[in-house]
Amino acid sequence: MALTQERRILCSNRRARYEYQIEEVIEAGIVLTGTEVKSLRDGKADLKDSYAAIEGQEAYLFNCHISPYAAGNRFNPDPNRKRKLLLNRMEIARFIGKVQEKGLTLIPLSFYLARRKIKLELALARGKKLYDKRETLKQRAMTKEMDQLARGRADRG
């Protein structure tokens, strides 16, 4: 019996692939409180301006807004607090080297549910320049146009 790996995306950073050139993607665990988990399952999170950084020998997620859970009353933590990422020492050491040496950034791409645990998809990325963003838009427009032409021919033929 094969184990199917189901991933339900809870929240995603849609601008990340437009703003950054993704070099490598990894899965990281994250330390959350109970009310944060409930709020994330409701899809009430925002990764827009968030980033990950390494302090000492530990990785943290900054500027990630997880809205307070409606029924959480006094147990709701600060929505923008820094949250610890669960990575092993070898991964952290590798990231320290790449971030310092190559000028890369750690950005979160999405929160998702895998095997009843909330995981964070984290990317090593390089910021795009304005002309790179324009090139991305041109490529997207060309692909869309090609698809429309191909569909038009398929409908006629």
CATH topology: Small Protein B, Chain: A
**Unreliable stretches covering 5 or more consecutive residues:** none
Summarize model confidence as the mean pLDDT. 85
CATH architecture field? Beta Barrel
Strand order of the largest sheet: 1-8-9-2-7-5-4
Q: What is the CATH C-level name?
A: Mainly Beta
Helix content: 25-40%
Radius of gyration: 19 Å
What is the CATH H-level superfamily? Small protein B
Verbal overview:
It is a single chain. This protein is α+β, with helices and mostly antiparallel strands. The chain has a single domain (about 5-130), classed as Small protein B (Small Protein B, Chain: A). About 35% of the residues lie in helices and about 35% in strands. The chain has 4 helices and 9 strands, in the order E-H-E-H-E-E-E-E-E-H-E-E-H. The protein has helices spanning about 15-20, 35-40, 90-100, 130-155; strands at about 5-10, 20-30, 45, 50-55, 60, 65, 85, 105-115, 115-125. The strands form 2 sheets. Strands 1-8-9-2-7-5-4 form a 7-stranded antiparallel sheet. The longest helix is centred in the C-terminal third of the chain and has 27 residues, at about 130-155. The termini are far apart. The mean pLDDT is about 85.
What tags apply to this protein structure?
4 helices, Small Protein B, Chain: A, alpha+beta, 7-stranded antiparallel β-sheet, about 160 residues, two-stranded antiparallel sheet
Please write out the topology.
Blueprint: E1 7-12, H1 16-19, E2 20-30, H2 34-41, E3 45-46, E4 51-55, E5 58-62, E6 65-66, E7 83-86, H3 89-102, E8 105-114, E9 117-127, H4 130-156
Antiparallel strand pairs: 1-8, 2-7, 2-9, 3-6, 4-5, 5-7, 8-9
